[in-house]
Specification:
The chain is mainly alpha-helical and 172 residues long. The chain has 10 helices and 4 strands. A hairpin with a 4-residue loop joins β1 and β2.
Length: 172
Amino acid sequence: MGTGSNSCYYDGKAVKENIPSVGYFFGDYGSAGHIGKTLIQAYFDDKLPGDLKKEFASTHDFDREYILDNVYQKPMPNRFLASYSKIVSDFISHPYMVSLIKKCFTDFLLYQVEKYSRHTQLPINFVGSVAYYNKDLLFEVLAERGLTPGIVLQSPMSGLLKFHADAGERPI
């Protein structure tokens, strides 16, 4: 779960079900880009608590033209949006930021996990820094939705090495 998030049901041998991601513009739920986009939207929709909005206005670049230029005119708008997720991390002790991340995780589960036929019967595994660094909040959301947490890896590399080693292949 991160920028470019995706999901599938893998039975240990093959992918049995897959819900394709439609990218950062239409979804990318639970990713740093989604979190950043949600924060920016809350800022401009005047949904942020006053203390946060005042803090952000004085310490972070929430200039409307700057944001629109980076999203619509410059390359890699998904990375630009993801850069705003750092602000959420910096203020994670604030209840509003906790609810923002939990909402983004709920969206991911709703659109990318709960459509699978066996989502309530199997543990849900995650790979990516967003899930890894926010594991406690992710597990809270999973519990609220009656889902079982599985493995959470920061990066796919350790899992890929184990997979190929278990399969008797030499990792590259």
